[in-house]
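Milestone M4 deliverable, item 7.
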Amino acid sequence: MNKLLLISGCFILFACGCEKIFTPEPENLKTVEQMYTDPAYAQGFLVNAYRSIPTYYDDCDYATDDAVTNQKSNAYLKLASGAWTATNNPTNLWQSAYGAIQYLNLFLQNSPKVHWADDTAADQLFTIRMRGEAFGLRALFMYYLLRNHAGFGGDGTLLGVPIITEFQTVNSDFNVPRATFAECLKQVYKDLDSADVDLPFDYEDVSSAALIPERFSKITQTPEVYNRVMGHYSRQLYNGLIAKSIRTRMALLAASPAFQSPNNPGTWADAANAAATVIDYKGGVSALPAKGATYYTNTTEIGNLSEGINPPEIIWRENLSTNNSDEESNNYPPSLFGKGYMNPTQNLVDAFPMNNGYPITNSASGYDPKYPYKNRDPRLALYIIYNGSSEGVNASTIYTGSASGTDDGINIKETSTRTGYYMKKRLNMSVNCNPASVTGQTHYKPRIRYTEIYLDYAEAANEAWGPTGTGSHSYSAYDIIKAIRGRAGLNSGGSDPYLESCMESKEKMRDLIHNERRLELCFEGFRFWDLRRWKSNLNTIATGLDVNGDVIKNIDVESRNFTDYMYYGPIPYSEILKYPNLQQNKGWK
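Output delivered:
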């Protein structure tokens, strides 16, 4: 936690249409009181919090059984090999999250005094909306702090993190103990409740007073005033739907095996009910976005985005990046002028079933190890470049075998694959990375996808009510997974016999749901945390496949070196040294 917040007068306004240019104060410093008459300056405190939101593609997959990297100095590679400590922790969000919370607390403390607009109704609406954003963002950062740093103390108590809801000054007591996980959960939900009250589900213009949500219609009956504050100009700011999605993430984490404790009130039903609110808003099971599995490469769809509109798959995203080739440059194979950073494992490839829906280990699958990529789940070819794939602007054939005679072969050069595979997901194959003629495409990074929330419901509903139980809803875990596998092309003709067999027990359905989550969310930063909250095996050896003509050889690529206490991340050692009331998670030094 920061002892002093230095307040700068130069804030870049969030993308909501304002282009005001400031004249800086002497020495570029402003006082808190100047917030009250300078709304752009006041909004800057929210902007700083938005900037601190952790990136979606953090590449922590490198430390799982899904991927390795050819970047020998990568922090997650070192983490997975035994170098994870309380002083060397690439998952540490402590300082950045609490820094953002400081800005949010300062904003919440002072925002009612800010003069946002001359129009009285607009001024009131701006105050309400931005406070809702601040409460929602504070809940978001608390969720990340709990995901990354909650755990059991030496006495067996499930601990969260210090709860800080007031702006801290140089005179504040920073030696604050960790609250229990249950207390943190309560605080997150309290902030999300506040966000729910203050925010519309979505930022859309209304054409008549009758369409203004009731809680805001008491303030204005004028569509133009409502639209100015709550309309399309505010898209991509935190809204009510985002708050419901963060509640789902928080509830799922709280219900997971790693966080089971007598003092944790979280249940699977809580998580299922939270996810159902989002799914119902979308339109139910049938509204699962048809092209959601390829959200990253739907070129026409992405190219037509404007005015902050989301694709059907996206609940929240970062801003568009035009003519961009960063992901491709980092992850294309060498022959396509890429660095080949993300190398999927054979472990992950083996998790993709056959196109009849059966796992490759099932005798009914028809899998032939001599032809490992034949008749596989269509998502395999969408997400992973394997030996013989045709990729890039010229549909070049990629040969990954160690004897292939190309730079794409296993361990041929520093940018070559280590596993026999390259990542294809997140990439747009119409991007050309040839230095002689680089051509980018429009990209965006998600923050929350609908598919994630559908999978959250499936997992939680199965645990709460079994494969076909629905609770108070009209759909089950089975219904969700059937829709997801159907979208993937696994139930040709409407038949998915393997899914039907998994209806027999919660355990079989659990394994299937976990696997579907692994496939649908691969390379998006979920696997690292899913394995921990499930308390699954962290030390599976990452393997590859060396394919040279008819000679196919499985290879061990990278061992993992985790111990059981690493299901939970550490409190930063620097914080433990400074504040003796902070208790470290069990096992960490």
